[in-house]
Amino acid sequence: MSGFNSIEDLIRYDKSKGTFRVSTRIYTDPKIFELEMEKIFYGGWVFLGHESQLKEPNDYVTTHIGSVPVILVRTEEGEIVGLVNRCRHRGSVVCLTRMGNSKFFRCPYHGWTYSNDGRLVGIPDREGYPKTFDVEDLNLTRIRIANKYGFIFGSLAEDPPSIEEHLGSAESFLRVLGNKYPKGIRLLEGYMSAKIRANWKILLEGSVDHYHVPFAHESTTEALKNVVGRRIDLRAMNSVAHIGNGHQVLIVHRETAQFGWEDSWYLRESKLTDFEKLWDSQNKFRIAIFPNVIIWGPNAPDRFIQIIRPISPEYSELTTYFYLPVDGPKEYREYGIVKKDRWKMINLLHSPAGLNQPDDQAVWEFSQIGAGNSLGSNQYNDLSRGLHRENEEWRLKRLENFSRVDRIGAGTDDTAIRGFYEWWAKLLFGKEI
Ligand code: FES
Ligand SMILES: [Fe+2]
């Protein structure tokens, strides 16, 4: 079997046959995982958190860039900074909790203490080091961060592309999320986190895929049928698109504009342009921003933000936060399928005992099991669906003047995923497919 350096061996795209296939080694090979960390997670921008998680001075959340633990914190002065969560003494993490409020981080190992802007301010038994010992050289490592409409991204790279370059057209979707409500959105404090035995790309593939819904989520669709009187329609007006730079969107198009019962308030107060308001009223979207965050747009009943953390080739962590508008009429702030009881909705679908999330986790793990390991024979997954019907005119029109479209297809097609893999291959191997 040839080595992974041959991209042609990992992705087999045959235009004449209309096939696009990826080797299952991309989900299992430690060398590929290492390359992904270097080129994607440490070489570019990664989503870290939302500014509403850092409302007060000294609020912090912890997260990761690839396998590097990170703290995102609002300092006493109100500045948001990113720090590597790693003591400069002997490398223990200095902050152990997922979120909280603290002026200092004291390392649990030998007690070195850092202020929350990263300065090393306390070394127990300082006399054990010579006077010439340079304490300033041992501050927590700062991370470059960028805040786009409240969404905070971080980069470990020395010279990354600008955040605008990285986001490209994903910025249009973030604008809708950030500007639809005059005071923006806020993440609810609770979160759900699961360790899943599946490669991080399998999680991303499954997040912009309408094809699996009636099958993997059969129990949900059956229950829904009893409520709304019909089954999920695989030919519904959904599209998936790759909008460049690995970013994928799943869009549910509405036949007519729908503003909902909160219209008058929203139309009066929103910071969106008239064009953006119209677009938002005609489309419901889910965006997977490369490489690690999936966000349901504001028109979804279960508005969530999911962060994917790659742990190893075969393991990932998925953390789900839910969000609501900060302002607006009371019902608006609490809007959900089960009105006034949003947690019911969230638990019903997305908790470990919910209807949807366990289905997804199960099928993702089944795919990982099917991939075997990288020492096995070379097997291929098929991502050809919809190759013959990309870029239909009416779909392109739906995103006109709103977002760049690299390619677009039906919601059940693999169109966006193919775009994702072409971008992935370019970053890893510097080659076009
Ligand atoms: S490892 Fe942090 S104080 Fe020793
Ligand atoms: Fe699903």
Automatic annotation (TrEMBL):
Keywords: 2Fe-2S, Dioxygenase, Iron, Iron-sulfur, Metal-binding, NAD, Oxidoreductase. The keyword Mitochondrion does not apply. It holds the Pfam family Rieske. Residues 46-143 form the Rieske domain. One of its GO terms (molecular function) is iron ion binding. The keyword Kinase does not apply. InterPro entries: ARHD_Rieske_2Fe_2S (IPR015881), Rieske_2Fe-2S (IPR017941), Rieske_2Fe-2S_sf (IPR036922), Ring_hydroxy_dOase_asu_C_dom (IPR015879), Rng_hydr_dOase-A (IPR001663). Belongs to the bacterial ring-hydroxylating dioxygenase alpha subunit family. PANTHER family: 3-PHENYLPROPIONATE_CINNAMIC ACID DIOXYGENASE SUBUNIT ALPHA, CHOLINE MONOOXYGENASE, CHLOROPLASTIC. This is Ring-hydroxylating dioxygenase, large terminal subunit.
